[in-house]
Amino acid sequence: MRRIVWWPVLLLPLAGCLAMQTPSSAPSDSRSPGIWTVLSPMPTERAEVAAAEVGGKVYVIGGFGDTLQPVDRVEAYDPVQNRWEARAPLPIALHHAAAVGVGGKIYVIGGYQGRVIWEAQATLFEYDPAANAWSQKASMLTPRGGLGAAHINGMIHALGGSSDRVLNVHEVYDPATNTWTRRNAMPTARDHLAVAALDGKLYAIGGRSSFFGTNYSSVEIYDPSTDSWRTGARMTEGRGGLAAAVLDRRIYVFGGESPFRIFSAAEMYDPASDGWWSKAPLPTARHGLSAAAVGKRIYVIGGGTRPGGSRSTLNEAFEP
Question: What is the pTM of this model?
Answer without folding.
Answer: 0.94
